[in-house]
Amino acid sequence: MRRIDEEIIALSRAHGPEAITRRVYRLYQKVSIAGDLVALTAVGRAIDDAITLLSNPSDLYLLKAHAAFKLHKLADVHAALLAVSSVYDSDEGRLIRADLDFQHGRYQPAESGYVDVLGYERSWGALARLAHLRGKMGNAPGADCLYEEAEDQLTAKEMRAYAWLEVQRGFLDFAHGRREEARLHYRRADAAYPGYWLVEEHVAELLGAEGRYEEAAGMFERIASTVNRPDLEQAIGELYELAGQDRRAAYWKERALRGYLQSVQRGEVHYYHHLVDYYTDVAEDGAAAVKWAGEDLQLRVNFATQAALAWALYCDRRFSDAVQWIDRALACGVVDPLLDFRASEIYRAAGNEIEARNLREGALNLNPTVAGFHVHH
Fold first, then answer.
1. Chain centre to alpha carbon of residue 219
2. Which residue from 178, 280, 286, 360 has the highest number of Cβ atoms inside 10 Å of its Cβ?
């Protein structure tokens, strides 16, 4: 991070297209490493300013698309790709278009997009995207093989990418209740790229799932001290509540809600789904949860947003509506233990005991620890 800061300062004094482009890339790299979505909004403005200064800003339009994607501004992603035809038709542009398909619930076109690009080059980024999709669709062994192949494409200089891939492999295990396997991947990630907040965040989640609540909260607090992340503050509050420390829990929950709402007031949309989680699982305010689930659904319609609305409706005791939306989420073929577990609760509340029991058994078969602590990613 120090080297990046030094280069940004040096590039600020330089002129010319290459220096402008490189400086913006370094700004983006800095906020990506830090996981700072507030700062990413400012970087987005810097990208827009830089585009106006270049006669051929095609690379910056790709960067603009990536930044907008992280901020869940999917319309801006599509607009950035359309701005330059060479960007839209590039391999990276095609991958981002497939990412948009996935976010909008078009899973088969998304897979076809990834596979088509991989037919030209088996890049680690395309392999990881396909792995994520196939993992969501229930092929965990196939997903892990793709992640492993992605790692084989990396050079010795790409340790952050290697750590990121190991975290994905670890989380795949964690989501299926294989905690020791997850721990091994997280250790490999930490050894490859020490001090990476993403690794620490997932290790803390694992500790929380094991009932080591205060230890997990302490790790999250260290991460949260360096970056504005209300989602981490929510996790800290939930952990302290589980640890029986109600006063500390209340403090962190209030901070989280304040951070979410301040983000919304700034015109940002990337915490909509976290607000749904907050009002269902923390504040237990079903009506507010339904409101934010509806806002998120306006941005993207996929199994996650459908399931979030279903859970919000359940918390608002609108059980028949909740069944309709959870059915839509389940219909796409996604295999997710938490989705099935919550679907079982919705069906039970609606009076369908047989389907509720089947879904609960399926969820526990996929992950016996599905009801334990987890972070709202």
1. 19
2. 280
